[in-house]
Amino acid sequence: MYLTPQHILLAGATGLTGEHLLDRLLNEPTISRVLAPSRRPLAEHPHLDNPVGELAALLPQLQGQVDTAFCCLGSTIKQAGSQDAFRAIDHDLVLAFARRAREMGARHLLVISALGADANASVFYNRVKGDMEQALQAQDWPQLTIARPSLLLGSRSEFRIGEQLAAPFMRWLPGKYRGIEATTLARALWRLALEEGDGVRVVESDELRRLGR
């Protein structure tokens, strides 16, 4: 069964996937409002509400009813500066955003996690993503969609040397391990948002590629 959300809350609109998702949302004729807080101003649009500032400070100020929330927040340990700073973004801030979205009436949360997310993983990055997934499930959302993409492919505003070196190889790996274009992920997230359901759905990278074709 499909539904058509009209009021959207989006975190991470200036990121690689978030910018593609925002463009898609603003071009959907059924959507009347996209509330997208960001650290830097976004291009103006008649259906865009864009509070500017640090997300943690903006969350209590966000107003209005929303149907669906997308969380495209994501960093790296190098970009964040430390393991603690990384966890503050990819775990704590994600959970705070989700709580505020629920308070604003969102019934469906779609969040970008990562391939290999596991609360018991020995790799710190994967463990934080797994902890985040478990904590979101504990929030008892009516509908929670967890996307686990492989390496995201696309042109970023900041240079990530590891991703640049890995990208050519990730395009040829099999199944869920193959890299996924950010535009494809954005299309998949929107399609998943249109599907009405209950409970938790985890979508691995190979299914995301199929949904985003």
Automatic annotation (TrEMBL):
Gene3D superfamilies: NAD(P)-binding Rossmann-like Domain. It comes from Aquipseudomonas ullengensis. This is Oxidoreductase. PANTHER family: OXIDOREDUCTASE HTATIP2. SUPFAM superfamilies: NAD(P)-binding Rossmann-fold domains. It comes from the Bacteria. InterPro entries: Him1/Fmp52, NAD(P)-bd_dom_sf.
